[in-house]
Amino acid sequence: MPGTATTLADTTRTDPGAPSDRREMALRLLAARRRTTAPGGSTGLPRVPRDGRPLVCSAEQRRIWLAELVAGPGAVPPVTAGLALDGPLDPDRLTAALAAVLSRHPVLRARFAARTGSDGRPDAEPWQTLPAEPPTAAETATLVETLDLTPFPEPEREDIARGMAVSAAGQPFDPATGRLLRLTVLSLAADRHRLLLACHHLAADGASLAVLLEELATAYRSGPHTVPPGPESPDYADYAQWSRDRLERVLPDRLAYWRHQLAGAPPRLLPDLAPPARPGRAEGRSTATAVVRVDAATMEALRGAGRGVPLTAHTALLTGYLMLLARAARTAEATVGVVSGGRPHPELATVVGCFTDLLPLRVKLHGDPDFRTLAHRVRDALAAALTHAAPFDRIVSAVAPRRAPGVHPLFQALFVEREESARATTGGTGSGWGPCLASRPWGQEVDGTAYDLTLAATTGPGGAELVLTYPRDRFASGAAGAFTAELADLLRLLAENSDAPVSRLRTPEAWRPAPALDDAVPGSRPAPALDALDVEDIVADAAQALSRPIGTASASVIESVCALWAEVLGRPGIGPDDDLFALGGDSLAVVRIAARTEDRFGVPVPAGLFFETPTPAAFGAALARLVEEHHHG
């Protein structure tokens, strides 16, 4: 998950015998029944031939691949899980257990590369090639890093371990090498260890790490043979082909929905949170977090406010988040990103891979509704969005929003809700990591985010924990902390006054910047609110400033750029002032144009340049400067 870590507490299933394991067993039995009852003994999930040839990637993998091609390695933070183990840990046994898990899930060692187009040149579409043989002991050992923290003073080791975990999680993966998983073992004492499992999002999501850790514990406890590869079971490559085939049948209608739903939406949500005291790039970590808890009684009251059909925790928390975001941006609507997807077939219950994507959720707060009415509005919007779920990069291409450099398209605030796990914290015979090892979730963070604000909510019987991740160079820590605390206060107000118009339920808004001196004078005119048109003008002005020619380009260069863009986009007649993204350009088109520009002009072109210079005239000027620097630098 981008910006915040996926911890074991967020994703993992319970030990054998718990309700979630019984559900998993039921899914496996259902899958087995399908194998025996389907015509010809086949299942609803066809198997892809394993003849060594490259295989298609899923739509989820395609989105991540393109994001990293455009923004660079690490643009999509890895998915991580942390675990604390108390008791003697056998390193060789742990490595052997990891090898068994790798053998079961080929996607963890898949190699990714751009496929070759009809013209023989590399395209931006990815292929994946699965490993032909199980991993060797030596290969697996290279994926495990053990760090001895015992030389440090004992009271400091836990904090040092957390810092090292953040650093380890931030190390980029190279999808071309087939090394998409890394296990870091932090030794605090002979009988105290912290494990960090990090995986590239091309190969896993949060729920997948729960599967991996459960299988790793089983293999460590009972021996590697307990999790052998399943020759009759599907793996992620089978899902990738199956899901792409299904998607092509429904995509046109779903994209039509998104064009209508997002028509006229403001291009950017601009929350008015106080900036840091020293604007600019913060030293050290790029992100920080603010944490607050919402008690169980408040969560119960929020869910009960729906009457008749109780609200889910997801809907209740999302409604409060949308309200506060709209207030922070001084708008009457808000668009946030929500997570979609899951395992849509019983046979995929224990398959590791990326099954999640993102959807923009646009909600209007017009009419001054009460909480109950607004929550139902959010619930209906969410249901419609999930019904019309489509790959996020395809939605961006279809909507063709105005783009600005460094601004995530369609939404800049993300909401993620996770369920708290009841995983046992101690091992016992036949469960956990074994009778000599006690395990418990160990939380840590990932440094990096593509969004202005990311709210991760972990819900459970004790209430909800809200973790807000934000860029340190954009917002002051005090403002982010106040915003998070006031979200909890707002949720309590909504729970106590679910029938009151939401406009009457106010918080102090201590997160806003301090007023300028003129604004602080009694009787002075307050700062005007930003409406949708103001926000659009701000982005337009920024884009215009960034797209002004930074050099001179001859008419022939601009003409060549127009022709090249027309060739890639399949749209003849492109003019010097036409906007690439308004013409339907997307991340895939950007990568293709960059590659062909390099072929034609002999200079590498950073993909980000297209967002700064989105017209042939502006891009041609930038290209002229690149060519000049390349030949005279």
Task: Tell me what you see in this structure.
With 633 residues, the protein is α+β, with helices and mostly antiparallel strands. The chain has 3 domains: 8-18 and 46-239, Chloramphenicol acetyltransferase-like domain (Chloramphenicol Acetyltransferase), CATH 3.30.559; 265-421 and 446-520, Nonribosomal peptide synthetase, condensation domain (Chloramphenicol Acetyltransferase, 2-Layer Sandwich); 547-632, Non-ribosomal Peptide Synthetase Peptidyl Carrier Protein, Chain A (Orthogonal Bundle). Helix content is 40%, strand content 16%. The protein is built from 19 helices and 14 strands. It has helices at 8-11, 19-37, 59-71, 91-104, 137-141, 157-169, 206-222, 236-261, 296-304, 313-329, 371-387, 392-399, 477-496, 517-520, 532-546, 555-569, 587-601, 609-612, 616-632; strands spanning 55-56, 79-86, 111-116, 122-129, 144-148, 181-189, 192-199, 287-295, 333-341, 356-364, 413-419, 438-441, 453-460, 463-471. The strands form 3 sheets. It has a 6-stranded mixed β-sheet. Strands 5-6-7-2-12 form a 5-stranded mixed β-sheet, with helices on both faces. A 3-stranded antiparallel β-sheet has the order 1-4-3. A hairpin with a 2-residue loop joins strand 13 (453-460) and strand 14 (463-471). Helix 3 crosses helix 17 and helix 16 (555-569) packs across helix 19. The longest helix has 26 residues, at 236-261. The radius of gyration is 26 Å and the shape is globular. The model is unreliable at 1-42, 421-430 and 517-551 (pLDDT under 50).
